[in-house]
Design brief:
Helices cover about 85% and strands about 0% of the residues. It contains 4 helices and no strands. The chain is globular, with a radius of gyration of 14 Å.
Length: about 110
């Protein structure tokens, strides 16, 4: 019998993939090794968080929320500095969506 994935797992997976792809795009467009490395690390941490979320381990929501909060802060600062809407707005918006889904899943009893 197939079980559907909880929303928090799905949003964390998507956010992780966005971080990895965004880092690769930043590297390709601007040659930014920092974007590549930070996108890869944050993306992998989010994917690990999604795995633990799916398994019901307590570290899953904590890891996912911490990485999401850090990305929201980093991209908010980047947006204020560069005044460029993308990719900052996408990463901020999806970070907020991910935090909301994590919060909703933690309050659902």
């Amino acid at each position: 019998m197939m079980h559907s994935l909880p929303l928090s797992v799905i949003t964390t997976l998507i956010y992780g993939v966005l971080a990895i792809v965004g880092g690769a795009i930043g590297y390709r467009q601007a040659g930014s090794q920092v974007s590549l490395l930070s996108g890869f690390i944050s993306g992998i941490l989010l994917l690990i968080g999604a795995y633990f979320l799916w398994g019901g381990a307590l570290i899953g929501p904590l890891l996912s929320a911490i990485v999401s909060l850090v990305l929201i802060v980093v991209f908010t600062l980047r947006w204020k500095k560069s005044r460029k809407l993308m990719p900052a707005a996408l990463m901020i918006a999806f970070g907020i969506i991910n935090l909301a889904s994590l919060w909703m899943s933690s309050t659902a009893v």
